[in-house]
Structures are given as structure tokens and as C-alpha cells.
Design a protein that fits this description.
Layout (H helix, E strand, L loop, with lengths): L6 E5 L3 H8 L5 H7 L1 H12 L3 E8 H6 L2 H19 L2 H5 L2 E6 L2 H4 L2 H14 L5 E9 L1 H15 L7 H6 L11 E4 L21 E4 L9 H12 L8
Helix pairs in contact: 1-2, 2-5, 3-11, 5-8
């Protein structure tokens, strides 16, 4: 395939609706959803995608949902990061893990320690990039960027480059395509999702709930993307 996207961002929606449909407790949908990350990362590597981003939890997810569900999410995060810190496939493929958002402000010490271990274990890798947005809100990111620039460079002319350098996502390339799962009748963005980095992104909305969103559907979306001409506003 030609025109393979360099950076794909996925909003993995529909975990709770999938669980309800199966007659399961809603939080179990998140557990099944997490199992898809490895398959999609593997397929992305096979297709030549070097940068994959998942939004695994917004700030609102962690402060507005029922305590039992949030506690389950935190347990799931802890187990996931403990696992990928020593995952053989992650190290063989030299996948660099990044966790972006306000997670340090809200997560318990055990979870933060697990995340830090994953970050440290993969910090020197540069072949593939797995970015996980956690306690993330795009409007928070832009507000922080503006406040940072105003404090550090009060008299400096604000350029696009200066903005990019002060974003939480400063090290990430522009997003080529956003895939949002679980959107049948309500395709939408959320909370200013990576608003600077998605200025020219294509969008793909699928009704498939994330726990059912497998590598075959992912590959089809990427193949469809590769056939389209990117005009980038021209």
C-alpha cells in the first residue's frame, strides 16, 4: 500500500455498551477493550504505521463515573502498565511508551509507579511509538499551553512552532486519521481531542464497539485511507 498513515489515533468508544449488550457489568467492557490494544499495535506495525495513539481515559471519566467503575479502571491501568513494562513483544519491537495527560494528579501511587516503570523500560526505543492518553482533555492541554507560553515568553511572538513546542503532545507527529469506534448514530469528537494535532486529520466512525474492533476492520480502514488523496487544505 502507498500513502500509509504515519500516526493513527483511536478513540475506543463503546466498551460499556458492549458489556450491557452481553449482559455483563459495564466495567468489564473496559477489560475486554484493553485486550484489543496488542492486536491493533501488532497490525499497525505490520502495515507500516509507526505511531499509534489510544485515548484510554479522559479526566471526566475518572471523576464523574461511579466509584466502582473508576476503581476497576484504575486496577486495569495498573495491571496493564505492569504487564507492558516487561512485555517481550514490546521490547523486541522497540516500542516506546508515552502516557499523556494529567494522570499524575489523580491516580494512586501504585498506578503511577506502574506507569513510570513502563515509561522507563521503553524510554530509549525509537522504532515504534505507542501513546496512551490518560486523564486527558484537549481543552486542558491547550489551556496549559497558553498559560505556559504566557509565563515563559510574555513578549515573544507566538508562532505555530512555539505552540507545538509547548503542547503535551509536542513529541508526536500530526494525526493522519482518527478512528472512533462505537459511533452509529452520533459521530462526534470529544473534549477538544488533540485539537492542534488533528487540524488536517481524516475521521472514520464505525458502529463497531471497541471490544469487537479487530485487526481486520482496522486494516480495511487503513487500506481505504491509503487510496484517498490528501489535499491538506489546498
Amino acid at each position: 500500500m502507498s500513502n500509509i498513515p504515519k500516526h493513527v489515533a483511536i478513540i475506543p468508544d463503546g466498551n460499556r455498551r458492549w458489556a450491557r449488550k452481553k449482559g455483563l457489568s459495564v466495567w468489564l467492557g473496559h477489560e475486554y477493550g484493553v485486550k484489543m490494544f496488542g492486536d491493533l499495535l501488532r497490525k499497525g506495525k505490520e502495515l507500516g504505521i509507526s505511531c499509534l495513539t489510544f485515548w484510554i481515559g479522559s479526566w471526566d471519566n475518572l471523576i464523574k463515573r461511579p466509584k466502582r467503575e473508576v476503581d476497576f479502571l484504575i486496577k486495569l491501568y495498573t495491571e496493564y502498565f505492569e504487564k507492558i513494562a516487561k512485555d517481550k513483544e514490546i521490547h523486541e519491537n522497540k516500542v516506546k511508551i508515552s502516557v499523556i495527560g494529567r494522570w499524575k494528579e489523580i491516580l494512586p501511587e501504585k498506578t503511577k509507579t506502574a506507569i513510570e516503570k513502563a515509561l522507563s523500560a521503553t524510554k530509549n526505543y525509537n522504532d515504534y511509538f505507542l501513546n496512551l492518553l490518560l486523564a486527558y482533555d484537549g481543552t486542558d492541554e491547550m489551556q496549559d499551553c497558553v498559560e505556559k507560553i504566557a509565563g515563559l515568553y510574555p513578549k515573544k511572538k507566538i508562532s505555530k512552532q512555539l505552540i507545538k513546542e509547548n503542547l503535551w503532545t509536542k513529541d508526536l507527529p500530526p494525526v493522519d486519521i482518527i478512528i472512533r469506534t462505537g459511533c452509529q448514530d452520533d459521530p462526534h469528537a470529544s473534549a477538544g481531542f488533540m485539537m492542534w494535532d488533528t487540524a488536517y486529520s481524516q475521521f472514520h466512525f464505525t458502529k463497531t464497539f471497541f471490544p469487537d474492533f479487530g485487526s481486520q476492520e482496522f486494516e480495511k480502514i487503513i487500506k481505504d485511507y491509503s487510496k484517498k488523496e490528501r489535499r491538506m487544505g489546498a
